[in-house]
Design brief:
With 142 residues, this protein is α+β, with helices and mostly antiparallel strands. It is built from three helices and eight strands. The protein has helices at residues 29-33, 53-61, 134-138; strands spanning 8-11, 15-19, 68-72, 86-89, 95-98, 101-104, 110-113, 116-119. Strands 1-2-3 form a three-stranded antiparallel beta sheet, covered by helices on one side. The longest helix has 9 residues, at 53-61. The chain is globular and about 40 Å long. 25% of the residues are buried. The mean pLDDT is 85.
């Protein structure tokens, strides 16, 4: 049975931050860079009042997995984080593909990924073809 993707949204007046926990590779970039907003110790771990909208957008851009993204809340504004397509192999980690991707999964389902997508290189992910951070426990080197 296919698991439903979990998507959490947190909003302020300007933007809605979208978090996809199963996409997260646990790089810790979010909370190490902006603990006032992204704090895993808090019950609601994203506090949209913790920093300015521009600062939150900047921190989201540092997310290597694409688990964090944002969309504008202003009517008629189609702003969203968009990047040039680029591929990067992280040392001892996933293959990162930056940009908008149209993915066809092995079961034929289709999905669209924006910003950054982390693909598993170690083979240990429970969310293949995507990275779930299992390379760390597996001791993957590459």
């Amino acid at each position: 049975m296919e698991e439903k993707e979990i998507i959490k949204e947190y909003s302020n007046e300007d933007i809605t931050v979208v978090w996809k926990p199963k996409t997260c590779t646990h790089s810790k970039n979010c909370w190490k860079g902006l603990l006032q907003v992204f704090n895993p110790q808090n019950r609601l771990w994203i506090n949209m009042d913790g920093a300015s909208t521009e600062r939150i957008k900047k921190q989201i851009a540092a997310c290597p997995s694409g688990a964090l993204s944002y969309k504008s809340n202003k009517e008629g504004d189609q702003e969203a984080l968009q990047l040039e397509t680029k591929v990067e192999a992280l040392e001892n980690g996933p293959l990162l593909v930056y940009g908008t991707l149209n993915i066809t999964n092995s079961d034929g389902t289709k999905e669209k990924r924006n910003k950054t997508t982390a693909f598993c290189r170690c083979g240990a992910s429970q969310n293949k073809p995507f990275c779930d951070g299992a390379h760390t426990d597996a001791g993957f080197e590459g």
